[in-house]
Write a structure and sequence with these properties.
Residues 11-104 form the NAD(P)-binding domain. By secondary structure, the protein is α/β, with parallel strands linked by helices. The chain is 39% helix and 16% strand. It has a seven-stranded parallel β-sheet with strand order 3-2-1-4-5-7-11, with helices on both faces. The structure holds NADP nicotinamide-adenine-dinucleotide phosphate.
């Protein structure tokens, strides 16, 4: 193995991971780093290899396979100094495979490897069903508040495994909690269709509206969520990574990093989507109409859009992260998103 920093990266073909990898590949340390990307598609693996040659890193290695190829993942992580986990925030077993590799790395080298794991502010969600604005605002400078979350909430199963690894001392762990991420990414990985251009929540609501020919909302849509532009989100991971290398970032219990640059109210987002859908002939009315009981039964995920998730990204800002896009930009992102999803010329 060379003396270069060994980085294992999952989710390179994803919306979040692609935006980060593009930036990481031009990080001042990239030329002294060796990137190994876990990729499922052989075709995308080839495209990523070609792209890698154009970056300061001079190339990327591919581990062809899935996160569920547990032994393969563990063996690669056991050779890594840094893991960027950008592919799965729900399942225990892929996380356990990564942690087993980190433990092996520590035992064999005596050096404590780094895990940057992606969770989500969905872990903070309540059951408001669109009927009220939540009162609790979580602040990541207060680990006690985060630790008050019940074990069974979204993402928490995986986050608890990650936190335990840090406590045991065989890895330094950093958990990033993105909120609603929006915007259509640009850059080589997106322009070449290697990485996914679409986020999750907004495209889901757009598709749900198209399917019922009417933009929808959960009850009154009084609930609130934080949001961040994809580029500001990616920039945070770079800020964090730089701070970790300079030994300036808290890890473990104090290493929970929310990301947000403001919030939006669910009704306002639903309204922006519905107006755009109406404009392109995909919604009967231009104001949102609440989803029905039958619709929740058929698509339980719809109720997610009636939850509150409220937080402050105090730790990210303390590290010097300066997001450029205010929360209102989420509304401006709807028009291009609708047109891109529906293949309509902007
Ligand atoms: N987008 C958001 O607004 C948002 C907000 C909060 C948290 N997050 C979290 O951020 C993470 C990334 O989300 P995203 O928006 O980038 O999703 P995405 O665009 O769907 O990308 C997911 C990435 O993970 C890879 N992946 C999934 N399962 C895999 C497996 N079994 N083996 C190997 N690779 C696998 C995908 O590879 P393929 O290309 O092969 O499918 C893809 O590269 C997720 O954990 C998500 O929960 C996202």
């Amino acid at each position: 193995m060379s003396g270069r920093t060994q980085i294992f990266f999952t989710g390179a073909t994803g919306y979040v991971g692609g935006a980060i990898l593009q930036k990481l590949a031009t990080h001042p340390t990239a030329a002294n780093s060796e990137f190994t990307l876990l990729v499922r598609s052989p075709e995308k693996a080839r495209l990523l290899e070609d792209w890698g040659k154009t970056t300061p890193a001079g190339g990327v290695k591919i581990l062809l396979g899935s996160l569920t190829d547990y032994d393969k993942v563990t063996a690669q992580v056991a050779k890594s100094d840094v893991v960027f986990s950008m592919a799965d925030s729900y399942n225990d077993d892929p996380c356990k495979a990564i942690l087993a590799g980190l433990k092996e790395r520590f035992q064999n080298s005596g050096k404590v490897p780094i895990l940057i794991h992606t969770s989500g502010t969905g872990t903070l969600k309540d059951d408001a069903q669109g009927k009220f604005e939540g009162e609790t605002i979580y602040d990541d400078i207060t680990p006690d508040q985060i630790e008050s979350l019940p074990d069974g909430v979204f993402h928490r199963n995986v986050d608890l495994l990650v936190l335990a690894a840090d406590r045991e001392g065989y890895a330094k762990t950093y958990i990033v909690f993105p909120p609603t991420i929006y915007g259509l990414p640009v850059g080589p990985l997106f322009d070449k269709n290697i990485s996914n251009r679409h986020s999750h929540q907004i495209p889901f609501l757009i598709r749900a509206g198209v399917a019922r020919k009417q933009g929808g909302v959960v009850n009154d849509g009084l609930n609130k969520w934080p949001c961040v532009h994809y580029d500001d989100c990616a920039e945070f991971y770079i800020t964090l990574y730089t701070a970790i290398l300079e030994d300036k970032a808290d890890h473990g219990r104090g290493g929970n990093y929310f990301i947000e640059n403001g919030e939006y109210r669910a009704y306002d987002l639903a309204k922006a989507i519905t107006e755009e859908l109406a404009e392109v002939g995909q919604s009967d009315k231009s104001t949102p109409v609440p989803f029905t009981a039958e619709e929740y039964e058929k698509t339980p995920m719809l109720s997610y859009f009636g939850t509150n998730s409220r937080c402050k990204a105090s730790k990210a800002r303390a590290l010097g992260w300066k997001p450029k896009h205010p929360a209102e930009d989420i509304f401006a992102s709807i028009r291009p998103e609708v047109r891109a999803l529906l293949n309509i010329q902007p």
